[in-house]
Amino acid sequence: MVTLAEVAQHAGVSASTVSYVLSGKRSISTITRQRVEQSIRELGYHPNAGARALASSRSNIIALMVPLRTDMYVPVMMEIAIAVATTARTHGYDVLLLTGEEGPDAVRRVTGSGLADAMILMDVELDDERLPLLRGTDQPSVLIGLPADTTGLTCVDLDFKATGALCVEHLAMLGHRDIAVIGEAPAVYERHTGFAERTLDGLRSRAQELGVRLLHRPCEGGYDAMAVTLARILDERPGTTGFVVQNESAVEPLLALLRQQGRAVPEDVSVVAVCPDQVAMQASVRLTSVAIPAQEMGRHAVERLVAKLDGRGADEVVLIAPELAVRASTGPAPSGTS
Amino acid sequence: MVTLAEVAQHAGVSASTVSYVLSGKRSISTITRQRVEQSIRELGYHPNAGARALASSRSNIIALMVPLRTDMYVPVMMEIAIAVATTARTHGYDVLLLTGEEGPDAVRRVTGSGLADAMILMDVELDDERLPLLRGTDQPSVLIGLPADTTGLTCVDLDFKATGALCVEHLAMLGHRDIAVIGEAPAVYERHTGFAERTLDGLRSRAQELGVRLLHRPCEGGYDAMAVTLARILDERPGTTGFVVQNESAVEPLLALLRQQGRAVPEDVSVVAVCPDQVAMQASVRLTSVAIPAQEMGRHAVERLVAKLDGRGADEVVLIAPELAVRASTGPAPSGTS
DNA sequence: ATAGGATGTCGAAGCGCTTCGACAGCTTTC
DNA sequence: GAAAGCTGTCGAAGCGCTTCGACATCCTAT
């Protein structure tokens, strides 16, 4: 293993000079810099991470805590994780992957050991037990998702309230007056992961403003659960012509069931989904949808975090504006309804 | 930040004694151990990761390199990643998440800097450019997936050849004589990711042994591509009654298309999938399938790696035996065929 | 009674790096 | 032409831990 000292000797300078070449924290003459860089290349030198962390008390590592649970739509998590890793690298950071399994202990461990300089938490619950720890430490952190109380925290998330509003608006504009919302599994609501509630909030308030009737039903996803849910909805509100779906595993079943019942999309009923673009594009009908901007969320989170690590940037809540892409699953409400 | 020295002082012992309590590398009297442990708890001490890494030249970190590309089925990757992280923790290791983006450079960087003690590589190509580097270093590594030449490497993967054989066997046993294989996207074959070829190999050789006719067609996935592929297959081999699908995004489209054409599953045609159990269970017909044992692969990989780090265990190829779960998508071939 | 072996603890030497203060050799300034 | 300021480089201290050899102590076997 090549060390700094060996590079210094090879280049005929002192160790500190090599260090300054590497960090750029003091000016070095061009000629010396080049000699040092040459030696580094020739010897294939890589600074030792441990020594560096010890001496500088910076590990250049960002911890990313992903949920262990897999009832959330997994590809989104993965996409965020990859965006985080990629963006972190462009800022000189590596990413440590923590699962939610350890819970708050992981926060303590990572903070206490100086393993990471900062943390990103995914899948934050409204009243997450890790939050007090984060507030109590001076280690920067960013949440992906929104807890109930955001004071003293930096959060990044899609603006789900605006998302809900946008979906209703789109359907209302097309003349739909009876809209059903197919939501996440009941467990998601019970767990108080805020996004589902915020979406509903946006849906409801905008629906009221626009004078649209709204019926919300959580759904486990899968064919059987969807069949039951749909039957109940149509029983209760036979005039339903618009659907908003916020549950990836209910999308395809819903389309199949509608087809099976002879209800054409978008001629008879319209469907708007809140889901990753990939799902919207690969469905049997190309779905009008609001995308979950996974990459953007990951990127934003890292950038906020790096800003904090550099002493720039304060606590703030970044809500990404939703964008509705109109595709083939929505159209004017059939005449004669409501 | 609490240090070892402070713990030592608090407990009235020397620093080295505390260190030995922590590592267990020398025997410590019960009374001393307890005093030290008490102090550790009271002070909330966490050993500094950097200092530890520097002094012991072990970082207790395993690097996991995941593919950047997302044309593979993402949930499987995620499940493996989580299994790796979870298993690693039970052995006292943390996991560093690297994306394939940096390619071989990441291997050099991590190896050179001592950031990680070992590596796990996912999505290995047959002739992966990272392999020479791995062979040339003394840092332990495990591949998830099988390259062309495995000498000097440790690999973990599903036995895809046996998987292919198993699928054919099952269909043949049920009396199917004309089987179509719907494979991954052409790009996957072109990239020479071995698993697709190995499955095909198993399918073909067993089909020949059993006197079954086999037709293989790659497929991009999605409805449109599947429609084209299916039409071609039925045109070329109208008597096809069995399907083997190795492409998650083709499964549901295939079922929908068959239904649409009035071919009942499993009465008229049988379908076997090679996919994660979750996909098989959530499909519109519960699919007979061979599961991709993501968790098991992640776990095995870490365990092999830890064995190597402990000086136990040598290079070897671990092929996980496939298991076929019979569900509702396969049945006896309709009489009068072939 | 005493040599020899366990057993438990300590001191000190690094691990490879960053960073601070010092300083030699320049250039600028009046 | 001397004071003052820059620039570029160096030496040394120290980050918090592991680990090796040394050394008491106590036990066991002669």
UniProtKB/TrEMBL annotation, chains A, B:
GO terms for molecular function: DNA-binding transcription factor activity; transcription cis-regulatory region binding. InterPro entries: HTH_LacI, LacI/GalR-like_sensor, Lambda_DNA-bd_dom_sf, Peripla_BP_I. Signal peptide: none annotated. The keyword Transcription regulation applies. Residues 2-56 form the HTH lacI-type domain. Keywords: DNA-binding, Transcription, Transcription regulation. Coiled coil: none annotated. CDD domains: HTH_LacI (cd01392), PBP1_LacI_sugar_binding-like (cd06267). This is LacI family transcriptional regulator. It comes from Streptomyces guryensis.
